[in-house]
Structures are given as structure tokens and as C-alpha cells.
Amino acid sequence: MSDQTALFKQYETDYCNKSTDISRKINTIPSLSGEQRRIKTAEIENDIKSADVVIKSMDMEARSLPPSIAQPLLTKVKDYKADLTALKEQMKKAQSASPVGDAARAELGLGGDYYSTSAGQRERMLTATQRMERSTQNLTYAKETLDRTQEDGANILTELQRQRETIERSRNTLQDADDNISKARKVLSSMARRVMQNKIIMAGIILFLLAGIGIILYVKLKK
Fold first, then answer.
1. Half-sphere exposure of 108 (CA within 13 A, CB side)
2. What is the dihedral of CA 5, 9, 15, 18, to 10 degrees?
3. What span, in angstroms and rounded, lies between the C-alpha atoms of 139 and 41?
4. Alpha-carbon distance 204 to 210, whole Å?
5. Which DSSP string do the residues of 2-51 spell out, in sequence order?
6. Which segments cross the bilayer (predicted)?
7. What is the pLDDT at residue 58?
8. Phi and psi at residue 104, in whole multiples of 5°?
9. What class, spelled out in words, does domain 6-112 have in CATH?
10. What is the DSSP string of 158-190?
11. Cβ-contact 107, 32 below 8 angstroms
């Protein structure tokens, strides 16, 4: 949704900046006279036209979005139109007023505490909106960081599981090798015993043959 309304938010910020600037300029009119007043009035009228163009752009952008998103944006557009109308009325009031001092300006609602004026209120609204957008961006960044961290954690767990399976397979392979070595040792031991037995039998046979030969020679020699 944030991507869909990004252009609208740009228009909105642009309008808030323009309306704040317009209101500040209107507050200066009662303290001006002659050519300075005429120049400032023409400048404000151009700014009002520019602000009106921005509102129309906001309206067109809002209407191009899906209804569920467009509805709250169109409500904002309606509020901004009312705000611009109020600025125009404030402009007329300032134009009709004669050059006055601070006391008279306060009576006209054009002086006093800046943040109690419409310009000050707009500036505070813009500041609050920008602060909220920064907070939203920070939360979005934190959420993305958390998602990446969770994804990295899941990948690490998967890798650890894979390594564990590899170690298990290696251990099973070593166990099989140990079993095979034990079997081979038993076979070799059995073969060694048989070889020893065969040697003993061969030695017995040789002794038996030698004894027989000796007896035969003894008998022949005795004759």
C-alpha cells in the first residue's frame, strides 16, 4: 500500500509546505504598503494557484487507486480543499485591511503566538506527519531487519542440521569400518591358528618320517 500511495504523499507534503508558506506570507500583508504590498499579494496569489494545482493532482492520484485505498485519501483531499478556501478568505481579509501595527494585527487574527495561527498549526501538522512517516519507515526497516535475521537464523539451523546429518553418516561409516576391522582381525587370528596347527602337524609328520627312516637304517645296518 505504501508504494501505491507514495506519489500522493509527495503531493501532500508539497501542499503542506505551500500552505504553511502562504499563511506566513498572508500574515505579513497588513504590515506592508504600496509596491511591497502589491508584489507580496501577487506572489501569494501565484502560490495559491500552485497549491490548487497540487490539490487537483492529489485528487487525480487518489481516484486512480483502488476504492479501499482511495476513500481515506479523498477525505484528506476534501480537507485540503477546505483549508485552501480558508487561506483564500484569509487573503481577502488581509488585502482589505489597512496597514496596521502589532495590536491591530492581533485583533485581525494575524499576529500573536505564531503556533496559534493557521500557519503554525499547519507547520506542526506537517512536522507531526513527517515524524510519523519517519517512525513508520524506522518500524518498517526494523521489521525487515527482523525478517532477515529470522531468515538467516533459519538458514543457519538448516546448515547445522545438514552438518549434523553429515557427521552422523561419517560416524556410522567409521562404526562400519570398525566392525569390518574387527571381523578381519578375527579372520586373521583364525588363519594364524590354522597355520600354526598346520606347522605343528607338518613337524610331527617330518619327525615321524625321520623316525621311520632311522629305524629302517638301523635294521639294515644290523644285518
1. 25
2. -150
3. 43
4. 10
5. TTTTHHHHHHHHHHHHHHHHHHHHHHHGGG--HHHHHHHHHHHHHHHHHH
6. 200-219
7. 96
8. -70, -35
9. mainly alpha
10. HHHHHHHHHHHHHHHHHHHHHHHHHHHHHHHHH
11. no
Domain extent listing, the chain = 6-112
Q: What is the pLDDT of residues 13-61, one digit of tens each?
A: 999 999 999 999 999 998 888 899 999 999 999 999 999 999 999 999 9
**pLDDT tens-digit readout, 98-120:** 765 444 444 444 444 444 555 55
Q: Is residue 26 a contact partner of residue 105, using CB atoms and an 8 Å limit?
A: no
177: cell is 569400518
CA dist 46 and 157 (Å) reads 63
Provide the grid cell at 9.
504523499
Q: What is the amino acid identity at position 167?
A: I
Q: Are 90 and 23 in contact (CB under 8 A)?
A: yes
Residue 153 pLDDT greater than 60, yes or no = no
Q: How many helices and strands (H and E) does the chain possess?
A: 5, 0
Q: Which amino acid is at 204?
A: G
